[in-house]
Design a protein that fits this description.
This protein is 20% helix and 35% strand. The protein is of the alpha+beta class. Keywords: Signal.
Length: 204
Amino acid sequence: MRIEMLPERCIGLLRGTIFVCLFCLQLKVEAKTDFELQVDNFTCSSQDTEYHILKHYRCGMNKNPKRRSWHMEFKLQQPLAEHEVYMSIVLPRRKPVPDFVLLNLTTDGCQLLSNRNQVPLLSLGRNIMERFSNYPKQCPFQGDLIYYIRGFRLDLSLLPAVSMETPVHIELGYQVKPQGLRWLQGNLAARVQRISEKKRPKKG
């Protein structure tokens, strides 16, 4: 049925519904721009004392306090095909309230590289990471080649709307499949905070 054939009351209701939907969408977009993820610290470590998977690794942050980003790089002794990727995202809470675990999983690293993983958050993260890294599109990781993530800074507008200030602890890394040995682990301490008026973009 075409819209001009609807009763006037129904047309008015339809217009009102469309207006409310557009208004809610605008509020959601504005809410995303109210917060940012501020990185406080990023370090990495390795349990690779026996298998000699890594030749070199390092992690750190840039020195700009107003626009902090983090970086991680590593070089392998030889090509590495099978591996696992693990990640946990925890929002700490004051005791006795238990910490809120947003994500805690381990997945096949080769599937993640080729973006075949079905976990939406990891798939989104893989797509974002392509802008900041030289990671391959598929296994294996080559030996004697420096792989890196540089200048990574998460834009919260890419994620569902965030509406609270909270600390965030993120643990991520790689491990050998059978043994679970973590040959590279990164620990990131950050916080979601409201954007200050100085940083807020000026409206034209």
